[in-house]
């Protein structure tokens, strides 16, 4: 039976075991994040009945969910399930056919994203949001130095002091494990893993509240994936970021996310706490998805 996520209920799903906060957050070692999410009863972002159609073809249909500050939500499914279409609609990169997305700004006010002007949405993307692409070349300027890529984002928010910008770029390159002596190298001289880490630094340097990630480990070797995931998990926890992560890899979802949405053919099949969905899937499709990974 096909179900869809609700703006009212997902965060209230009980967690197995005594002493767990009524909660939204499974046992991923995110103790501080769990406490912060449990204490905040106002969603950061709310999607209501979001649909996108390409003529007769369904991109995604009637998707609703709420995301809390500091929470990581994974959207999983096979290729063609609609997860990237949903991410693009939520992040204003693609206009939905129907539905609405409401975001709580840093000043406490809430805005419906598609009633904002294009200039307001661009400013949101430069300040409060970040977007990590599967292909780092889509999120970097490949002929600009590593330091320049990070510094550009700061300049877009008004920074002008060269010394301060370079110091911030150096600090962030260090945080994503890129040596300081590579600051003047162009991304095209970097490996795939280094490019992805540089893209992460470029997005996080302005202190965003929400990060969108589209298959952040896609196309990387297994050893590089593990290193990147460890880095991402640490940064998300340390900075208290909220994130929506699209992935076909259930191991990535388990490591990074508190809750998850399972999609198929543009519809939400199942939603819940990540540990619960992966350890005790309720829908036949989710069971098949999990068992196929286990068998592999």
Report what the structure shows.
With about 300 residues, the chain is α/β, with parallel strands linked by helices. The chain contains ten helices and ten strands. It has a six-stranded mixed β-sheet with strand order 6-7-8-3-9-10, with helices on both faces. Strands 2-1-4-5 form a four-stranded antiparallel β-sheet. Helix 4 packs across helix 5, helix 4 runs parallel beside helix 6 and helix 5 crosses helix 6. The longest helix is centred in the C-terminal third of the chain and has 18 residues.
Structural class: alpha/beta
Mean pLDDT: 87
* CATH topology type of the largest domain: Rossmann fold
| Low-pLDDT windows of residues | 1-30
Rg over alpha carbons: 19 Å
Number of domains: 2
Number of helices: 10
Key words describing this protein structure:
22% strand; disordered N terminus; 4-stranded antiparallel β-sheet; Rossmann fold; 2 domains; alpha/beta; 36% helix; globular; 296 residues
Present the secondary structure layout.
Elements: H1 31-39, E1 45-54, E2 57-67, E3 72-76, H2 83-90, E4 98-104, E5 110-112, H3 118-127, E6 129-132, H4 146-156, H5 162-175, H6 192-204, E7 210-214, H7 222-239, E8 242-247, H8 250-256, E9 259-264, E10 267-273, H9 274-279, H10 284-295
Parallel strand pairs: 3-8, 3-9, 6-7, 7-8
Antiparallel strand pairs: 1-2, 1-4, 4-5, 9-10
């Amino acid at each position: 039976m096909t179900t869809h996520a609700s703006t009212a209920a997902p965060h209230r799903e009980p967690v197995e075991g005594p002493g767990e906060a009524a909660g939204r957050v499974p046992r991923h070692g995110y103790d501080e994040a769990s406490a912060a999410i449990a204490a905040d009863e106002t969603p950061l972002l709310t999607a209501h009945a979001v649909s996108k159609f390409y003529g007769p073809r369904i991109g995604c249909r009637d998707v609703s969910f709420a995301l809390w500050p500091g929470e990581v939500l994974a959207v999983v499914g096979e290729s063609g399930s609609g997860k990237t279409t949903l991410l693009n609609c939520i992040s204003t990169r693609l206009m939905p056919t129907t539905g609405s997305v409401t975001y709580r700004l840093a000043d406490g006010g809430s805005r419906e994203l598609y009633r904002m002007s294009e200039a307001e949405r661009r400013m949101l993307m430069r300040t409060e949001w970040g977007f990590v692409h599967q292909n780092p070349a889509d999120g970097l300027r490949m002929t600009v130095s590593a330091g320049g890529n990070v510094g550009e984002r700061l300049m877009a928010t008004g920074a002008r002091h060269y010394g301060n910008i370079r110091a911030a770029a150096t600090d962030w390159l260090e945080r994503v494990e890129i040596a300081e002596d590579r600051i003047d190298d162009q991304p095209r001289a970097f490996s795939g893993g280094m490019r992805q880490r540089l893209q992460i630094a470029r997005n996080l340097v302005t202190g965003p509240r929400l990060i969108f990630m589209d298959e952040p480990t896609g196309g990387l070797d297994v050893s590089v994936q593990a290193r990147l995931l460890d880095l991402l998990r640490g940064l998300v926890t340390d900075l208290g970021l909220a994130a929506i992560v699209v992935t076909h890899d259930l191991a990535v979802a388990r490591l990074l996310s508190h809750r998850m949405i399972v999609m198929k053919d543009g519809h939400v099949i199942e939603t819940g706490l990540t540990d619960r969905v992966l350890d005790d899937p309720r829908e036949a499709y989710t069971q098949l998805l999990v068992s196929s990974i286990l068998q592999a």
